[in-house]
Design brief:
- The chain is an alpha+beta fold and 56 residues long.
- Helix content is 27%, strand content 7%.
- It has a domain of 38 residues.
- It has a two-stranded parallel sheet.
- The protein is globular and about 40 Å long.
- The two termini are 23 Å apart.
């Protein structure tokens, strides 16, 4: 679980994290979750869980 993993990072660090996530996503027995306000532009999610639609 990554909570806003790209906040306050330089572009080199963002690229390293995205490369790591892409590698992890290639394994069928692994999953990762990114919690953020929007999907990063160059990442394609397999699914999106929109918590803003949940009622208290």
């Amino acid at each position: 679980m990554l909570d806003q993993p790209f906040v306050s990072l330089d572009q080199v660090s963002v690229r390293v994290i995205k490369d790591f996530l892409a590698e992890a996503a290639a394994h069928p027995c692994r999953a990762w979750i990114v919690a953020d306000y929007e999907v990063p532009q160059d990442l394609t999610p397999n699914s999106v869980l929109d918590l803003s639609q949940l009622k208290p």
